[in-house]
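Troubleshooting entry. The earlier prediction with 4'-deoxy-4'-aminopyridoxal-5'-phosphate gave an output that would not parse, so I re-checked the input for stray whitespace and re-submitted. Clean input:
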Amino acid sequence: MAQPHSHVFLGDRLVPADQATVGVASSAVLYGLSVYTVFPVLVEGGSRHAFRLADHFRRLEESCKIIGIDRFAQEWDHSRFEVGVRELVAANAPADDVFVRVSVHVVESIPGTRVRGCAIQVSMFVYDAVPIVPQDGMRLKSSPWRRIPDNAIPSRAKVNGAYVNSVLAKQDAIDSGYDDCVFLDGSGHVCELSAANIFLVRGGTLITPDVSCDILDGINRRTVLTLAHEEGIPVRERTVDLTELYIADEVFVTGTSAGAAPVFEIDGRTVGAGIVGPVTTALRKRHAAALRGDTEHGWVTPLS
Ligand code: PMP
């Protein structure tokens, strides 16, 4: 299991990791009422940079807005966020790539099931960048657990409590001998994995569920779509049937903690030839270069 590195940002300052706690009577603990994002910080020859920092901040703001955590927009803006990230990364001075998890916790004690006007606390910590799925060909199982629909707990908002849905589906997949799940919606259409977006390739076209398919609007998903357009690969964002995955030429997944990783098997069926296909290979390469800051998109923020 990953551990937070020694210095944790909590509220408005750095504290030792073992003192970075949130109260047992807070809504964050009682109801899972926190929203979060995770972004990578890459270390290259002694210098460090964050990937798509502004996009992560915007998604955090949007998650707060959807859930009604109004104090975040009143108390935080991008520059305060970036200062916090810089302090955190400078204090921990990671020697290798790390992930940074930023959470907005509703820390009001026992307010009942409401949110507007409730006190918040922001936490940020750094941990080793260990992928959550195999990078050399994973096996997926369609889940008996359905993805939470937008009109119950929106997947678009990265709200901690909703991750119980992901825990149920991922644990079921692991218990059944697979690496991760494929979430379906109530009609059987493909959504995403427990914490990654999914893509398939058929006849050279890249296909992925669109953003209204009860998915997280993943930042690596957006990245890969942009890179695919630039590579001249035809792209379609639309609803996807489970059986389309079974007959796809290639399937891969994207996410901060998942990388851009190939899928070799779904529900006991081999995907394509059971190898990393040409489109996956090309996009993985472009994605890795984008993370390193080797593209002209302005996606990286130098930190220290
Ligand atoms: N879907 C879910 C449910 C996730 O938790 C994640 C990880 N944040 C993703 C997709 C991938 O999103 P991103 O590319 O922004 O990391």
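This one parsed fine. Residues 38, 192, 195-197, 216, 218-221, 254-256 surround 4'-deoxy-4'-aminopyridoxal-5'-phosphate (CB under 6 Å).
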